Amino acid sequence: MPAIFDNKIVDLCAEKFVEVPADEVSAAMRAQAGKEHPLTWRYLPAVGGFGAPSVSEVVTFPSENIFDSVMVGEGSVTWNTLTWEENPTQFHIVNTMERLPVVEYLPAILTRGRTNLVLPENWTRSLAPMGGA
Fold first, then answer.
1. What is the CATH number of the domain that holds 51?
2. For residue 106, what is the DSSP state?
3. What is the pLDDT of residues 14-39, one digit of tens each?
4. How many CB atoms lie within 10 A of CB 87?
5. Judging by beta carbons within 10 Å of its beta carbon (0-12, 13-18, 19+), is residue 74 exposed, middle or buried?
6. In terms of Cα–Cα distance, which of 50, 57, 39 is closest to 132?
7. pLDDT grade, residue 65 (50/70/90)?
8. Are 40 and 117 in contact (CB under 8 A)?
9. Are 109 and 70 in contact, with CB atoms under 8 Å apart?
10. What is the sign of the dihedral through the CA atoms of 63, 69, 74 and 78?
């Protein structure tokens, strides 16, 4: 019997990368400047006992990506079928994922650069309060 936790859940493949010309990368970065795409969910449980308000809301997490190089290629995902003995706590989840159809593969993107997570002119903020509990 194989050792528990020594079984692959998924195989990811990215290959056939081609460099994107620097002028196209610069144009894409200019087009994205000032836009807020990243979202996250903030949940702060209530403190102080029952009836105290909690916070549950969608927030922006503005960031700025600076790419030095970008490559585009082909990607694929292959889920492995597992048994209870191979992964007793998650085999049913993995096997369900393996049975889902692949609708479409989008390009694999490999970037080299940095991300600025602090933008003083554009702080993290709430978009739509979802109410307290």
1. 2.40.400.10
2. P
3. 999 999 999 999 998 888 877 776 67
4. 20
5. middle
6. 57
7. confident
8. no
9. yes
10. negative
